[in-house]
Amino acid sequence: MADTLEFNEIYQEVKGSMNDGRLRLSRQGVIFKNSKTGKVDNIQASELAEGVWRRVALGHGLKLLTKNGHVYKYDGFRESEFDKLSEFFRAHYRLELAEKDLCVKGWNWGTVRFGGQLLSFDIGEQPVFEIPLSNVSQCTTGKNEVTLEFHQNDDAEVSLMEVRFYVPPTQEDGVDPVEAFAQNVLSKADVIQATGDAICIFRELQCLTPRGRYDIRIYPTFLHLHGKTFDYKIPYTTVLRLFLLPHKDQRQMFFVISLDPPIKQGQTRYHFLILLFSKDEDISLTLNMNEEEVEKRFEGRLTKNMSGSLYEMVSRVMKALVNRKITVPGNFQGHSGAQCITCSYKASSGLLYPLERGFIYVHKPPVHIRFDEISFVNFARGTTTTRSFDFEIETKQGTQYTFSSIEREEYGKLFDFVNAKKLNIKNRGLKEGMKQSYDEYADSDEDQHDAYLERMKEEGKIREENANDSSDNSGEETDESFNPGEEDDDVAEEFDSNASASSSSGDGDSDRDEKKPAKKAKVVKDRKPRKKQVENKKGKDPNAPKRPMSAYMLWLNANRERIKSDHPGISITDLSKKAGELWKAMSKEKKEEWDRKAEDARRDYEKAMKEYGMGSKSESSRVEKSKKKKKKQEKQVKGKAEKKGSTSKSSSSTKSPAKNTNESFKSKEFVSSDESSSAESKKEDSEEEGVASLPPSSEDSASGSD
């Protein structure tokens, strides 16, 4: 006989909703863990009073009744599991698992029985339906009628909100059956009534969610938030967890209360109640109870008179009344020493706290994610700047949370924390020697590299290459994307000779348009040497031998991977610092070994340069001769063009005074538009002819000048 039985995909009926989870039966008792909220219900074996097996809508169900009147329902079992459960109950709990079927006759009259916190409507000996009285939010009476109202279930598409019972009158004197029915319901119902005085009151506390300042009145069974506009009543049974979180500025504290079901205001649901306190604010508190009652109810956890910081008093009182532990941040420490990380979620900035069993983000909107519901996490490159990164969490239900704008300095700390908690990292990159401890997520993208470590690695390689070739590349590197010479050839700009020719031929009406091309043609002549300069800068031979590395660089290349493995997650800058420290601490004997290797590399480099120089000497002399010949030809063409231009200018100047003797006087600076345009066009034509056809010999150039 097994000591434990475990069942997956079991549904627990709580306040009209079916919550799935895992059920475990052991010698000590019954444990059910809710998959959605992580809440654990623990029923001790000694508290079990009755077990019932019956057929329900989701197959077969198990109903457990405890000695103090609580009822627990679990559905989702298979019919074949009855024998196994019945034998387990008999052996470990000494209970007979009884089989009881529901009545399906469809009759609407019968007998109402109250047993513990359950209202059962029976026909004969068979129950038709059952109502947990904790679901009842209000009970009203009328003439021979009782109306039950229920809490709204946000998780269900359709909720049962009201049931009415007709109670026939009886002949007994002095007993009203309607009032008796209502009193039985109200004694067990979850109806919040502020009867009596509050145990204590905290005035004007700053509340972030829901926003405002509220007076918090502490009652024995519920918490009352009283504000200027709204009031909220929170039963202690709806409190899931309590968190006490230090603010990053170390001057304030968050006190977070997790609620299920949430408090409601219209269509808004508040799953978290967040209070903000200043550490400097103190309070003296006196409970509205005598010392004997305090000792009997709280068993030393509270005293009648207490004093201290306000946040300590509130958290201490809540812990005693709710009877739950307070969760505080664990061992995580960020880059600045704080126990949280500044980030953004959706449109708001807030703080992400890595806890021992999950993450919590405060405050707008607050999010709590448990480790056991996380499928994987992902480190992604920031969308707006390289100074930050994004931290993504995807749950097993497919919900994705993206915390963005996290400072790059926090990356190593957060990565190590996630690794230590054995969470599956989607883009596990260069962390060597770290293997997943389980194979549940074998299909995740393990081939994807970490965005930041990959980028830093590439930058490190580029820096090393630049350090090796720094002397070779000095004064020779160019920005090849900017080629002014090519741009001038491809597009006819305003200052090109082609553009000026078209403008002078098409728009010859004004003197200004005709003078412009002459000025702009000079700009082209000034830009030509720049083109030659850029061309000269591109003259580096890729086949030339590379300069040898120093002894330190040879040692670093050989030991880089070892340093990475000794310091997982180290950045490129930290790796360089660490390598410098190791090199400085190295003994002279070990350094001499690398000095010899560097000396050998230098000799090989000098030898290769000699061989390279001998092979390229003849080629360089031939290139030099061709350049000199080309310069000589260009000078001859330029002289020819200047001679032609001067002869044409002198002939036109001698003819113009004869023509204009009868006209008015003109100054020496005056040049007619026809003469300037014709002279300029002739000059440009001569230049173009000279560049296009180079003269083969000096005889041809002499004939051309005649």
Written overview of the protein:
This protein is α+β, with helices and mostly antiparallel strands. Among the domains are: 4-99, PH-domain like (Roll); 111-187, PH-domain like; 200-327, PH-domain like; 341-421, Pleckstrin-homology domain (PH domain)/Phosphotyrosine-binding domain (PTB) (PH-domain like). It contains 15 helices and 31 strands. The strands form 6 sheets. An 8-stranded mixed beta sheet has the order 4-3-2-1-7-6-5-8. This is FACT complex subunit SSRP1. Residues 545-613 bind DNA. It is found in: Nucleus, Nucleolus; Nucleus; Chromosome.
Write the layout of secondary structure elements.
Layout: E1 5-14, E2 17-25, E3 29-34, E4 40-44, E5 48-56, E6 59-66, E7 71-77, H1 82-93, E8 97-99, E9 111-115, E10 118-123, E11 126-132, E12 136-142, E13 145-150, E14 162-166, H2 177-188, E15 200-209, E16 212-218, E17 222-226, E18 231-235, E19 239-246, E20 252-265, E21 268-278, E22 282-286, H3 291-298, E23 305-309, H4 310-322, E24 326-327, E25 341-345, E26 348-354, E27 358-362, E28 367-370, E29 374-381, E30 388-395, E31 400-407, H5 411-420, H6 451-468, H7 470-473, H8 484-490, H9 497-506, H10 511-537, H11 551-566, H12 572-585, H13 588-659, H14 673-692, H15 698-705
Parallel strand pairs: 5-8, 19-24
Antiparallel strand pairs: 1-2, 1-7, 2-3, 3-4, 5-6, 6-7, 9-10, 10-11, 12-13, 13-14, 15-16, 15-21, 16-17, 17-18, 19-20, 20-21, 22-23, 25-26, 25-31, 26-27, 27-28, 29-30, 30-31
